[in-house]
Amino acid sequence: MDTRNEIIMSVSNLTKKYKEIKAVNNLSFDVRKGEIFGFLGPNGAGKTTTINMISGLIKPDMGDIMINGESIRNQNSKAKQMIGLCPQNITVWESLTCIEQLEFMGEMYDVDRKKSRKQGLELLEALELLEKKDKFANTLSGGMLRRQYCACIGTSTRNSYSRRATSRS
Ligand SMILES: Nc1ncnc2c1ncn2[C@@H]1O[C@H](COP(=O)(O)OP(=O)(O)OP(=O)(O)O)[C@@H](O)[C@H]1O
Ligand SMILES: [Mg+2]
Predict the structure, then answer these.
(1) What confidence tens digit (pLDDT) does each residue in 87-130 have?
(2) Which of 14, 15, 16, 18 to mutate to test the pocket of ligand 1 (most atoms within 8 A of CB)?
């Protein structure tokens, strides 16, 4: 089944005020599976405030965000496990190579080392970083570093899913 048209994230009537400043005013949009969605606007338009609401860092005054059918507003929501944020300023473990970072992430999610390495290599390949697997992360270019960080996010979201699957079985 082709799932590319499915809505993976739905933002509806999102509003946030900081005292008298209306930072985000009744914002609605959908993002579909596999879509690369650009979110552009002038300085002060409310982009960071929106991203902070999507990632659960701050609460909206009004409106909702659904991630794969789960509301971010719901206290016990799985929505936060399904999203990852690659921030402007990235912190990586400088003494670990690219693959070691992913193995370490796996370890934090109780994934056994063999599986963790296999998963890490798959992620590096998907993000076109395989040739850098044994290089220290601080030797990567800015764009490569962001892709490495996305691989770390991939490790955490994948293993949150499998944990959920395990806890349900
Ligand atoms: N913590 C805060 N307290 C008060 N006002 C804030 C706060 N954060 C943002 N604002 C205000 O909300 C509005 C939106 O800011 P926001 O940081 O979301 O914009 P942005 O689109 O990310 O801008 P930029 O392109 O400059 O990063 C601005 O007027 C800003 O001054
Ligand atoms: Mg901003």
Answers:
(1) 888 888 888 999 999 999 999 888 888 999 999 999 999 999 99
(2) 18
The pair of three-digit structure tokens given for residue 166, joined into one six-digit string? 């395990």
Q: How far is the CA of 41 from the centre of ligand 2 (A)?
A: 9
CATH match of 7-79 with 3.40.50.300: yes
Instruction: Provide the residue ranges of all domains of the chain, joining segments of one domain with +.
Output: 7-79, 98-168
Ligand closest to the CA atom of residue 24: 1
Q: How far is CA 100 from CA 92, 96, 103, 133, in A?
A: 11, 6, 5, 8
CA dihedral 47, 50, 51, 52 (to 10 degrees): 120
Strand partners, 64: 12
The answer, yes or no, to whether any atom of ligand 1 lies below 6 A from the CB of 133, is no
CA dihedral over 59, 60, 66, 67, signed as positive or negative: negative
Q: Indicate the residue type of 116.
A: S
